[in-house]
Amino acid sequence: MLRTILLGPPGAGKGTQAKMIIDKYGVPHISTGDIFRENIKNGTELGKKAKEYMDKGELVPDDLVIDLATSRLLEKDCENGFLLDGFPRTVYQAEKLDEFLSAHDSKIDVVLDIAVDKEELITRLTGRRVCKACGASYHVVNVPPKKEGICDRCGAELVQRADDNLETVTNRIDVYEAQTMPLIDYYEKNGNIAHINGAGELSDVFAEIVNAIGE
Ligand code: AMP
Q1: What are the residues whose beta carbons fall under 8 Å from the beta carbon of 110, sequence distance 6 or more?
Q2: 202 by DSSP, 3-state: which?
Q3: Are residues 83 and 111 in contact, defined by beta-carbon separation less than 8 angstroms?
Q4: Does the active-site annotation cover 172?
Q5: Which residue of 83, 86, 105, 175 has the smallest Cβ count within 10 Å?
């Protein structure tokens, strides 16, 4: 059983580490950002509402996120744990999540707080490119594809996420500091938070995570 939350600013590598965590521990990866992007792609009402906020780098209102995340947690594959990535993002969301979990005799085992400094975050995010088809992630300087603009894995076109331009990135980081960082204190009080240095090599960051979760 592993019930965990990945906390950290945009660009901290949460998505990449999440993939490594789910491979090792076999829990489902629940990314509210991915769920919203899927809804946008499919042109749903929820997608239309969320896009307005996402394109500006702002948070989607709590009431649109909480039900979405908690109903996902009721699905069968979450019985033996889950990895929440990008939720909760406000203290209110965290309180609602705790209420939901305690009503289901459940709780969070560990919160992983991945920290990276602001300048590095901006470099990472503005250089990020993702595959339109398979979602693989690249970086124009740090992880370039073999052929510019083309996914190594599936050959589809690489694009920049609509919210990865400099203006939106800066706003997303400011929003993180103002609205999500207070969660560090919130979980500190519960005594179940582990601080991870996200600046190093992927494998070193993952080793710290495994150390915090336990084999
Ligand atoms: P992410 O992929 O986690 O960076 O999320 C992309 C965007 O989706 C964020 O900038 C928000 O606009 C929105 N979003 C994702 N998760 C949440 C959440 N828990 N609360 C509010 N907005 C969210």
Answers
A1: 2, 4, 5, 192, 193, 194, 212, 213
A2: helix
A3: no
A4: yes
A5: 105
- Report how far apart, in Å, the C-alpha atoms of 7 and of each of 62, 83, 148, 149 are: 17, 11, 32, 30
User: Which stretch of DSSP H or E encloses residue 157?
Assistant: none
Q: Whole-model pTM? A: 0.91
Amino acid at the residue 170: T
Mean pLDDT within 41-70: 94
What residues does ligand 1 touch, defined as CB less than 6 Å away?
10, 32-33, 36, 53-54, 57-60, 65, 86-89, 93, 163, 172
For residue 88, cis peptide bond before it (omega within 30 degrees of 0): yes
Mutate to test the pocket of ligand 1, among 7, 37, 60, 65 (most ligand atoms within 8 A of CB): 60
| Share of residues in the chain with pLDDT > 70 (%) | 100
14 carries an active-site annotation: yes
Instruction: State the pLDDT at residue 190.
Output: 87
Distance CA(174)–CA(122), nearest Å, equals 11
Confidence (pLDDT) at 215: 79
Sign of torsion over alpha carbons 154, 121, 93, 210: positive
Contacts of 174 (CB under 8 A, 6+ apart): none
Q: What is the CA radius of gyration of the chain?
A: 17
